[in-house]
Design goal:
This protein is 17% helix and 32% strand. The termini are far apart. By secondary structure, the chain is an alpha/beta fold. The protein has a 23-stranded parallel beta sheet that branches. The structure holds uridine-diphosphate-N-acetylglucosamine and calcium ion. The site of uridine-diphosphate-N-acetylglucosamine has 27 residues, from β1, α3 and β10.
């Protein structure tokens, strides 16, 4: 049995924000969402989140995630007091353990959590670290045999204790039934008049339950966020870590320091990503995909061999094999670009399918359209899909040629192999294989003079 308690009641005053601290994003997702995701990797039986400041907002942000139980801590009287609020919800079967995490320490990795739980050996374990500057942290006091004796908070520590460089990261694991007993014994007779969770370490030693220490695999895992400065620093650390993982998987990043992933990115072999790109949500890039500089790609699938050129914006869209998109293209939700198709600069596509080998190379708006294979869409083509109230669709069949500056007033169909003359405003269906054009005949007026200023 594993219980996980996440402490998230604190105010986060230094963030200077109306948003509860644990909802501030890291890599595009609330810090607490990272903690929950990592916690879930351990397949715990219970997850209890202790909330207080902004409780309703925090709860609402995780609406529908039924594996989480929330408890309110009000007022906030310390980390021990916080865990006390969760205690009634913790399963305390004989072999049950409880892992305590912080909502504002978002990057503790599942492997580190597992190591901490293993280190317990049935007893208790604290996640500690040796820091050059331990100021502010609780210190790990050990005996002659190097056994953990207790944790002393910085504010309560003697000068001698303050010289200790091994600090408490705040994360610990304990046998649940014992933990509940120890929580009942906490007092707030200390420098901050708070109920310190850290005091359970001394109780454990007293009760002959051994206390072990484990350490995070990387020191960034235990960095907490108390201010915007720390948030920004941790964001860069996390982005660098994500970039490193991609590089190790064989992705080329022109500059790992100019790469932002706010979600998840899966890449095939030999993917190349130029500088300044932002990936959001769930993005899949097939083998050999090349992404030019400064693209924003969100919840999209780009198939093998496709190239996205500079400054393109793609959201909830699909790009087929070997297609070419951009520079300066915009694919909006529901855009589905066929294999080998080309979508060029200042072309916007929404809720439309472009068949294989289509070309829309310049300045066009294609919305609510079904476009067949090998259709050529000239510059300035617009699907007039909206009459101010309703949306209508445009169908363009295979091998049609849409001349430049054409308006397709939907609902309308262009038949297979049809050609539309430049400048056509198409209000009725264009028959297959024919030239259709709506264009006043050209005339020239001989002897006409430009007006002159009076
Ligand atoms: C705590 C530890 C300290 C450790 C440090 C690591 C205690 C007594 N001290 O100190 O040994 O070195 O973390 O960062 O545990 N919280 C609540 N309710 C409360 C108080 C805190 O939910 O009443 C939450 C906060 O939102 C935060 C976490 O617990 O997520 C830690 O609280 P914080 O005040 O930052 O702890 P420190 O005093 O820094
Ligand atoms: Ca803190």
């Amino acid at each position: 049995m594993l219980n996980i308690v996440i402490l998230a009641a604190g105010l986060g005053k230094r963030m200077q924000s109306d948003l509860p601290k644990v909802l501030h994003p890291l890599g595009g997702r609330p810090m607490l969402a990272h903690v929950l995701d990592n916690a879930r990797q351990l397949q715990p039986d219970r997850i209890v989140v202790v909330i207080g400041h902004g409780a309703d907002t925090v709860r609402a942000a995780f609406e529908g995630q039924d594996d989480i139980q929330f408890v309110i801590q009000h007022p906030q009287q310390g980390t021990g007091h916080a865990v006390q609020q969760a205690a009634p919800l913790l399963d305390d079967a004989a072999d049950s353990a409880t892992l305590v995490l912080y909502g504002d320490v978002p990057l503790v990795q599942p492997d580190t959590m597992r190591r901490l739980l293993d280190a317990r050996q049935g007893g208790m374990a604290v996640l500690t670290e040796v820091l050059d500057n331990p100021s502010g942290y609780g210190r790990i006091v050990r005996d002659q045999q190097d056994r953990v004796l207790r944790i002393v908070e910085h504010k309560d520590a003697t000068n001698e204790e303050r010289a200790i460089k091994e600090v408490n990261t705040g994360i610990l694991a304990a046998p649940t039934a014992r933990l509940k007993q120890w929580l009942n014994r906490l007092s707030n007779d200390n420098a901050q008049s708070e109920y310190y969770l850290t005091d359970v370490v001394a109780f454990s030693v007293n009760d002959k339950v051994e206390v072990h220490a484990a350490h995070p695999a990387a020191s960034w895992e235990t960095l907490g966020v108390n201010s915007r400065v720390q948030q920004a620093q941790l964001e860069r650390i996390w982005q660098a870590e994500q970039a490193r993982r991609l590089l190790e998987q064989g992705v080329t990043l022109a500059d790992p320091a100019r790469f932002d992933l706010r979600g998840s990115l899966s890449c095939g072999r030999d993917v190349v990503i130029d500088v300044g790109c932002v990936f959001e949500g769930q993005v899949q890039l097939g083998d050999g995909v090349k992404i030019g500089p400064h693209c924003v790609i969100r919840d999209a699938t780009i198939a093998a061999g496709a190239r996205i050129e500079a400054f393109s914006h793609i959201q909830e869209a699909r790009v087929g094999d070997d297609a070419r998109v951009g520079p300066y293209a915009r694919l909006r939700p529901g855009a589905d670009i066929g294999a080998q198709a080309h979508v060029g600069n200042f072309v916007e596509i929404k809720k439309s399918r472009l068949g294989q080998g289509c070309k829309a190379n310049h300045l066009a708006y294609i919305g609510d359209a079904q476009v067949g294979a090998r259709v050529n869409i000239g510059a300035g083509t617009i699907t007039c899909n909206y009459d101010g109230v309703n949306k209508y669709s445009t169908i363009i069949e295979d091998d049609a040629f849409i001349g430049s500056d054409t308006q397709l007033v939907a609902p309308v169909t262009v038949g297979q192999g049809a050609t539309l003359g430049a400048g056509t405003t198409l209000t009725r269906d264009a028959p297959a294989g024919q030239l259709t054009l709506s264009r006043p005949p050209q005339k020239s007026i001989p002897g006409w003079k430009r007006p002159t200023k009076k």
